[in-house]
Specification:
Strand content: 35-45%
Shape: globular
CATH class of the largest domain: Alpha Beta
Radius of gyration: 18 Å
Helix content: 10-25%
Order of helices and strands: HHEHEHEEHEEEEEHEE
CATH superfamily of the largest domain: Vaccinia Virus protein VP39
Structural class: alpha/beta
Oligomer: single chain
Number of strands: 11
CATH architecture of the largest domain: 3-Layer(aba) Sandwich
Number of helices: 6
Strand order of the largest sheet: 3-2-1-4-5-11-10
Length: 245
């Protein structure tokens, strides 16, 4: 991914523990169940496949999953988990494939790690081009919220338990729709620091960008369990189909 966050080797080694602590590993099966129904032809492609958190349970359902990621470290973790998934290093903003897929998906807000509008539109265009005629694109991302920001800044504790404390400092740039966040992870006697920059996108803007590349919204849910999306939802799962070939 150009102009985007990339996992270094140290952070990649902690990724599974981090996602477990924030509840993302436990919901991977739920995500795979949701995605499986769009893989009737048994082919799927993940943008930002990482260590296979969702791709592995989806492949265990008989779906042939391939993927793309910009981190060598995360791809190594995936290769250690399974040899059933074909994944390569690349930029999700601009990618090509001779194969056409029933499903292309991007989860956990990975799409927003492309922090310019041009890169985000390029990603949607690339995804549309590798979908087959009946294929769908599924994107998971947070709904932007700025509660607690003062002067464009916010510091909060996102997780506190007996062994771990997550402190998050965020800086908001409303002109470019960028959020820069720094996570300080205190665990036992160690402290880890990870910084990322995202370009947040409102659901309506995502729909408009998708329309620009020939994709139309067909479903939107509040989570992988298909809870209704409402004005108080904190994230959305959006499903798009091709409107032009």
């Amino acid at each position: 991914m150009s102009n985007s966050f990339s996992y270094d080797e140290d952070w990649a080694s902690m990724y599974e523990k981090h996602t477990s602590l924030v509840g993302r590993i436990s919901e991977a099966e739920e995500a795979a169940t949701f995605l499986e129904r769009f893989s009737s032809g048994r082919s799927a492609f993940e943008l930002g496949i990482g260590n296979g958190r969702v791709a592995v349970p989806l492949s265990e359902r008989g779906v042939k999953v391939e993927g793309l990621d910009n981190s060598d470290s995360m791809l190594k973790l995936l290769a250690k988990r399974t040899d059933l998934i074909k994944a390569c290093k690349g930029n999700i903003a601009n990618f090509k494939s001779e194969q056409r897929y029933d499903l292309v998906y991007c989860v956990y807000g990975t799409f927003t790690l492309l922090y310019t509008r041009d890169d985000q539109i390029a990603c949607l265009r690339s995804a549309a081009e590798v979908l087959n005629e009946e294929g769908v694109l599924v994107i998971e991302m947070r709904v932007p919220s700025f509660d607690g920001f003062v002067g464009g800044q916010k510091t909060s504790a996102s997780l506190v338990d007996e062994e771990n404390t997550f402190l998050v400092a965020e800086l908001h740039d409303p002109i470019n729709q960028n959020l820069t966040s720094t996570l300080l992870w205190f665990s036992d006697e160690s402290v880890r620091r990870i910084t990322e920059r995202v370009r947040y996108v409102y659901p309506q803007e995502l729909d408009a960008m998708a329309e620009c590349v020939g994709l139309g919204l067909t479903e939107r849910w509040g989570d992988w369990a298909r809870v209704a999306f409402t004005d108080v939802s904190k994230r959305h799962i959006s499903v798009y189909r091709r409107t032009s070939l």
